[in-house]
Amino acid sequence: MKKLSGRKAFRAGAILPVVLGLIIPALGRMGAQETSTFASALVTLLPKPGEWQPAEQPEQYLPENLFEYIDGAAEAFISYNFQELLVAQYKNESFPAGSLTVEVYDMGSGLQAFGMYGAERTPDSTFIPIGVQGYYEEGSLNFLAGRYYIKLMCYDCGPDAEKTLKSLAADIAGRVPDKTGLPLLLAAFPRTGLVANSEKYILRNFQGLSFLQNGFQADYKLDGREFQCFIVDNADEAKAEALAGQYLANYKKSGSDIKPLKAGSAFKDKYLLNVFTARVGRYLCGVTRIPDGQEETGRAYLALLVRSLKTVSRP
């Protein structure tokens, strides 16, 4: 199979975990390499042979050699604590020139899998109800299922390629034992003006700040205005309080004028524009990218976030 790289690999890759005790030679994509063995508990996720038969033994990739398969995109997956990738190739006698690739990325948790999935989907994707959620693009189907981000690609597979991919994806999703859904915290984002399927989870360096982790953000469009809301999850209230202070101190140090609000604070930043932020229980939340003259929108959405998170924060 031709090696993918760059943006194409980033949007078209996929992982399939393997069964405990099964030994599979791990072959490098850059030509023959030293053979190794591995054990995994999830080989049963792979589609059972039918019209599409295995073309070769599956290949396994771990964090230390993932770059051999998806090149520059490996760093993005590893930033979400990527665990393992299994790649399986299939062939069909009815389509001699065709090829089917199934990839499963074990991301370690449902939240981390959502983070990687959310980084690659776009709001205008064609979404389908497979697993937690999936989307179809010509010749490829990506979906989220539990701790796995799974991708299927079909090249020269005939007029029924979409039907084939959906059938195989549904079969794989049905065998994933972890039925984790979308992160519950996404429900805290206000619904009015929310751009559907724009929500993202950033595990590290949220907003480009090394001390911000576990950040959620969502895009909004309201009467021609575009802005973002965010929520940063912390272990407890004490850590959230310390983080809120550090967040404001960071921008004050950069020259921003911190103004107190009834609930929270406001400041202006070169990149985030007008920012409105508050701490609610163990959460730091806020509204960013509010242009001058639209500050009332920022204050209103901060109030909505605070109200919603007070409900989420209750034991």
Mean pLDDT: 86
Ranges where pLDDT stays below 50 over 5 or more residues in a row are: 1-38
Shape: elongated
Biggest sheet details = 8 strands, antiparallel
- Using the CA coordinates, give the radius of gyration: 22 Å
Relative helix content: 10-25%
CATH architectural arrangement of the largest domain: 3-Layer(aba) Sandwich
Number of helices: 7
Spell the H/E element sequence.
Answer: HEEHHEEHEEEEHEEEHEEEEH
Strand segment tally:
15
Q: Give the N-to-C terminal Cα separation.
A: 52 Å
* CATH fold assignment of the largest domain: Protein Transport Mog1p, Chain A
Tell me the β content. Answer: 25-35%
Quickly give the structural class: alpha+beta
Q: Which CATH first-tier class of the largest domain would you pick?
A: Alpha Beta
Whole-number tally of structural domains: 2
Summarize the structure.
The chain is an alpha+beta fold and 315 residues long. It has helices at 6-12, 67-70, 74-78, 110-120, 161-175, 237-253, 295-313; strands spanning 53-54, 59-61, 84-91, 99-106, 126-128, 133-137, 140-145, 148-155, 200-202, 215-222, 225-233, 259-261, 264-269, 273-280, 283-290.
